[in-house]
């Protein structure tokens, strides 16, 4: 509910969200209506409609007050800066929040015992028109330009104040003898100088220097009075131009993002008979088909939450990574992808989609074709350079200690596993394996390396022994018919308490199996790749 309200109130969603368009359009209409009423209520011709005007004004204030409270409530979804009590206070003092408050405050004050007069509140209601600034892109550019150039503005202000102080000190020493009543102190001289900056409001500068040197110094003050407005205006103008250029560049990048994401649009797969997204795109293909440069592709990927770049091999016989590919996924959680099918007790878990080649598409398609539950980590990997996303979820001492000290998304990933996986469910953690082993598929269920028989395993991660033995036999038989060899613990151990496999079993009591798929099979041609997915899914459906 909170997320939906935040999306509806967000004026940036007007073009994409019908409810947001209606709500924000309604708010704009009410603001314009109140502006018209502000004009009409002082016109003698419309004095008979005063009660009507006041009733409309009262209704609008209620609506604006509710809107303000809802915006304050959902502020933490706009930015992490607004989390908690201190964050809400920070939001309340943000530019647009202050304008929203100013739109309702005069009326509220006029109704309180601390309030202002009704007439004064009517005068202040003209502030409401500033609420339109939220919906004006040009005004938003000015706000952003001022915010981005605040350092330059502060420096220019420092220089002006410093020079004004120097000139005021000199004016005092030069003019004090000639005009002791007017330039009686350095403070009086500074007050005279600053009064010249704002047009001599209040009569503080109704006199002028009379000495030649004083007149020359007054000329300097006059020049500063121009600079105090001209320099900031120039700085803000340059920032305004930069914001327009940034907006133009952002639109271009967003269009490239749209085209790249559209190139992965799911199509009916002839092997599976369902809609399946494209496995991956190589950079040369994208450059040839979309006419993008490397830099344009990289910019688009950095701006997209659905695209990522990975090293890959053009052929399984190649010893080193020699090509760059694009992968696509659609995140719906802080860690990646979660799809829950209440009618299935089978869970496909992908713990390291960001770090391993081809595994994300494989597991996604396997879960989609089989109608299984799917939980996939697409955001965190141990090989990342940035600490915010550097975390290993397939094997980690934190898992054995039951203390996930990684990023929030990693913590949510583990919590989701415990929440959605039930006792006696079937869990398949899918990983990629190196290609130099005889087995194409490794089926692990809690044993140490070399323990190939059920009887040899001290603590199997299976609670339904009979069903598992049937499944294992079925997998070996059906995969063998497809030309694949399936084994168990010939090459790898699966009893390490740091493994995600063991973590899931310990916390859920489900039947937990890890499937290691050879990277050669994950990178194979479509006809082999999709036949393997179909064979696996058909076996799992029989559980």
Give a verbal description of the structure.
There is one protein chain. This protein is α/β, with parallel strands linked by helices and 543 residues long. The protein folds into three domains: 134 residues, Four Helix Bundle (Hemerythrin (Met), subunit A) (Up-down Bundle), CATH 1.20.120.350; 97 residues, Helix Hairpins (Orthogonal Bundle), CATH 1.10.287.70; 210 residues, Aminopeptidase (3-Layer(aba) Sandwich), CATH 3.40.630. Helices cover 52% and strands 10% of the residues. It is built from 19 helices and twelve strands. The strands form three sheets. Strands 6-8-7-9-12-10-11 form a seven-stranded mixed β-sheet, with helices on both faces. The protein has a three-stranded antiparallel β-sheet with strand order 3-5-4. A two-stranded antiparallel sheet has the order 1-2. α9 crosses α10. The two termini are 37 Å apart. 30% of the residues are buried. The model has no long low-confidence stretch (mean pLDDT 88).
Give a quick set of tags describing it:
single chain; 543 residues; alpha/beta; Four Helix Bundle (Hemerythrin (Met), subunit A); Helix Hairpins; Aminopeptidase; 19 helices; 12 strands; elongated
Could you give a quick summary of the protein structure above?
The chain is of the alpha/beta class and 543 residues long.
Question: Beta-sheet strand percentage?
Answer: 5-15%
Strand order of the largest sheet: 6-8-7-9-12-10-11
State the major sheet.
7 strands, mixed
CATH class of the largest domain: Alpha Beta
User: What general outline do the C-alpha atoms trace?
Assistant: elongated
């Amino acid at each position: 509910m909170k997320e939906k309200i935040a999306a509806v109130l967000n004026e940036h969603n007007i073009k994409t969200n019908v409810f947001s368009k209606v709500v924000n359009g309604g708010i704009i209409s009410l603001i314009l209506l109140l502006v018209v009423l502000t004009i009409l209520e002082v016109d003698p011709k419309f004095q008979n409609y005063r009660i009507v005007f006041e009733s409309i004004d009262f209704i609008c204030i209620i609506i604006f007050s509710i809107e303000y409270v809802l915006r304050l409530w959902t502020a933490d979804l706009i930015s992490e800066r607004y989390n908690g009590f201190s964050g809400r206070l920070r939001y309340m003092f943000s530019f647009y929040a202050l304008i929203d408050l100013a739109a309702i405050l005069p009326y509220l004050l006029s109704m309180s015992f601390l309030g202002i007069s009704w007439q004064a509140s009517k005068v202040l209601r003209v502030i409401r028109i500033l609420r339109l600034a939220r919906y004006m892109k040009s005004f938003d550019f000015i706000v952003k330009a001022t915010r981005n150039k605040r350092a330059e503005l502060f420096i220019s202000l420092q220089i002006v104040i410093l020079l004004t102080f120097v000139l005021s000190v000199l004016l005092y020493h030069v003019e004090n003898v000639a005009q002791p009543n007017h330039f009686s102190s350095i403070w009086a001289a500074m007050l005279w100088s600053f009064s010249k900056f704002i047009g001599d409001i209040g009569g503080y500068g109704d006199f002028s220097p009379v000495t030649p040197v004083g007149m020359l110094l007054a000329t300097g003050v006059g020049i500063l009075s121009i600079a105090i407005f001209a320099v900031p205006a120039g700085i803000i103008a340059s920032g305004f131009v930069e914001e327009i250029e940034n907006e133009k560049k952002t639109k271009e990048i967003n269009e490239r993002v749209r085209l790249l994401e559209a190139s992965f649009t799911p199509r009916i797969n002839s092997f599976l008979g369902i809609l399946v997204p494209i496995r991956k795109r190589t950079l040369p293909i994208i450059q040839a088909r979309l006419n993008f440069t490397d830099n344009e592709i990289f910019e688009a990927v950095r701006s997209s939450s659905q695209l990522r770049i990975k090293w890959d091999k053009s052929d399984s016989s190649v010893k080193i990574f020699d090509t760059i590919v694009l992968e696509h996924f659609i995140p719906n959680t802080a860690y990646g992808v979660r799809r829950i099918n209440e009618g299935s007790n089978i869970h496909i878990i992908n713990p390291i989609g960001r770090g391993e080649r081809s595994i994300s598409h494989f597991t996604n398609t396997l879960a989609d074709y089989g109608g299984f539950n799917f939980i996939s980590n697409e955001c965190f990997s141990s090989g990342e350079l940035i600490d915010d996303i550097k975390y290993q979820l397939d094997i980690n001492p934190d898992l054995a200690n039951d203390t996930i000290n990684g990023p929030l998304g990693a913590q949510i990933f583990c919590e989701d596993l415990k929440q959605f996986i039930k006792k006696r469910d079937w869990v398949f953690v899918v990983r990629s394996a190196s290609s130099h082993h005889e087995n194409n598929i490794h089926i692990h269920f809690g044993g140490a390396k070399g323990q190939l028989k059920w009887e040899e395993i001290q603590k199997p991660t299976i609670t339904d022994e009979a069903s598992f033995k049937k499944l294992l036999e079925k997998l070996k038989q059906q995969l063998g018919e497809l030309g694949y060899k399936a084994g168990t613990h010939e090459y790898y151990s699966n009893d390490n308490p740091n493994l995600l496999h063991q973590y899931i079993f310990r916390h859920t009591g489900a039947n937990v199996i890890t499937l290691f798929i050879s990277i050669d099979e994950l990178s194979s041609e479509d006809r082999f790749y999709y036949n393997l997915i179909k064979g696996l899914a058909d076996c799992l459906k029989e559980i």
